[in-house]
Amino acid sequence: MIRTALVLFLVASLAVAAIALGGDAGVASLAWRGWRVDMTAAAAALLVLLVSLLATIFWSFLKWLMEAPRRAARTRAEAKRKQGGEALARGFLAAAAGDGSEARRLAQKAADLAEDAPALVRVLAAQAAEAAGDLPAAKAAYSAMLGFPDMRLAGLKGLMQTALAEGDKGAALRHAQSAYGLAKTARWAWRALVDSRLEAGDWAAALDLVQGAQERKIVSPLVADRTRAALLAASAASFETHPTERMRAQALEFAQQAVKLKPDFAPGVVMAARLLAADGKVGRASGMIEGAWKSQPHPALWLAYRDLRTDETPRERARRLSALAALNPQARESRVLTVEQALIGGEIGAARQAAATLADEPVTQRLAGLQARAANAAGAVDEARAWIARGAAAPQEPDWSDLDPEGRAFAYRPEDWTRLVAVYGETGELIHPRLERHERTISDLPNLPAAYVESTPFLAAAEAGAAIMPIPDDPGVPDYARPPEGEPPPAAPPRRRRRLASPTRAAK
Fold it and tell me: Is 206 inside a domain boundary?
């Protein structure tokens, strides 16, 4: 206000000065109580402007004095809000760091200072109690939030978490159901409900939840399709081995729906092909596996493809597997299959050439065993032993035939399907739960004959714990080594495994 008055005063002064300098400025007289003042009109105008300016300044000063108490109150309130915000921020950081006592102290301080943010104070108080391990206090704080519409969802989530911490899965599930009905986009509530259905093996209820989540746009269509395909495969697995035809037909329907959603999902493709082949529809089963192989080759696919026909010679089977590998020749599994089919067909040279294309792949027990079998079939025993030595220290790959080379792939338990559905739905990764549990499997490394045939009886006796037999080309046991007459022979030495060849020596 004072700044505006100054500007007006300067503009008016300039205007009066311009009029005075431009000609006759006129005369102004003031008579008051016997006093008379004569001056030019310009001087009178400047005097009026000056008095007005002084009056404006004086009024502004009076207003500043009158508003001083209110201004001081606003300053104190602003400082209090700032301190409350800092207490809230530091309290949330302390709760996130797990410092429960500090978080509680700051929550109490924030309650006294941040009066304009009661929701944040309540959340901090609950999280501070959780960080301090005081679950009853945390439950009380979260329960208090349920009385406020804008805090109800946060309160339900906190109650679900505290119920899980106490081991009360039933209460946690009830809170998740309430939250899922309250908010259409509460993904955490949907995830809790889905996990509970998976844990119970209720695949149908889990499918309904996934469908609802896709409609609510809680999950992306890609995640929804993957999860539904895995759930349908799990449903098919639960009916596949059922003795009744109706249940097997239901299993086939579920498996085909899984393939329709994800044509390259190996569990669904393998089960659908297996059930189709059992119904005599080998052509449809072959086409389904071939389509999946073109998109994403998987070991279980060629194992199922191998078993579609049982009335063929080894060479016919090898030609059929070779055609499957040719659908995606550059893939790792196609090159592995090329070696396998060559060994099945007795084409040793072709097997060696195909094995050479896998030399740059990271060594696993499966690849080392395959290389050893190809080398041994070609008569390169030393090279085969070198591959076995490398494979002994190499990581293991999943055994998709489930321990039995002629067994069913994906013969999972319900808890295995639960984990597969959760992982595949979120990441698209096809896991193998039995390998994760480090269960014993058939070794991928072949058993080669002993290096020296003449020493075989000696090794067999040592492994059996019997008395040591002399090596055939040994002149015999010296007399001083024999026990005195009448005394029992010495005990056999402890059983020792013979080291065949080190990798370095075998490579030479």
Answer: no
Asked which of 66, 89, 122 is the last residue of a domain, the reply is 66
d(CA 305, CA 307): 5
| Mean pLDDT of the chain, nearest integer | 81
CA-to-CA distance for 395 and 428, rounded, in angstroms? 22
**With pLDDT > 70 as the criterion, what percentage of the chain qualifies?**
81
Answer whether residue 424 shows pLDDT above 60.
Answer: yes
Mean pLDDT value across residues 12-34: 67
- Would you say residue 207 lies in a domain? no
HSE-up (13 A, CA, CB side) for residue 98: 0
**198-212, 249-263, 428-442, 482-496: which range is least confident on average?**
482-496
* Residue 470 confidence (pLDDT) above 60: no
Question: What is the model's pTM?
Answer: 0.69
496 vs 152 pLDDT, higher one: 152
Regarding whether 236 and 375 lie in a shared domain, the answer is no
Q: Is there a contact between 159 and 142 (Cβ–Cβ < 8 Å)?
A: yes
Taking CA atoms, 321 is separated from 197, 295, 299, in Å, by 40, 17, 12
Which has the closest alpha carbon to 156: 179, 173, 136, 140?
A: 179
Please tell me which residue, 64 or 156, carries the higher pLDDT value: 156
pLDDT class of 331 with cuts at 50, 70, 90: very high
Co-location of 412 and 273 in the same domain: yes
- Is the pLDDT higher at 163 or at 405? 163
Is the CB of residue 179 less than 8 Å from the CB of residue 191?
Answer: no
Residue 199 one-letter amino acid: E
DSSP secondary structure, 174-217, as one string: HHHHHHHHH-TT-HHHHHHHHHHHHHHT-HHHHHHHHHHHHHTT
Q: Based on the domain organization, do 225 and 240 belong to the same domain?
A: yes
Residues 290 and 331 in one domain: no
**Chain center to CA of 286:** 34
Pairwise CA distance, residues 18 & 316, whole Å: 116
Whether residue 405 sits in one domain with residue 386: no
Name the residue range of residue 361's domain.
325-397
% the chain with pLDDT above 90: 39
> Would 212 be classed as within a structural domain?
no
141 and 259 co-located in one domain = no
| Dihedral, CA of residue 265, residue 435, residue 410 and residue 286, to nearest 10 | 60
Do residues 45 and 12 touch, judged by C-beta distance below 8 A?
Answer: yes
350 plus 229 within the same structural domain: no
**pLDDT at residue 7 tops 60:** yes
Burial code (b: 16+ CB inside 10 Å, e: under 16) for 291-300 equals: ebbeebbbbb
**Domain contains 482:** no
Count of domains observed in the chain: 5
Closest CA to 84 of 114, 115, 112, 124: 114
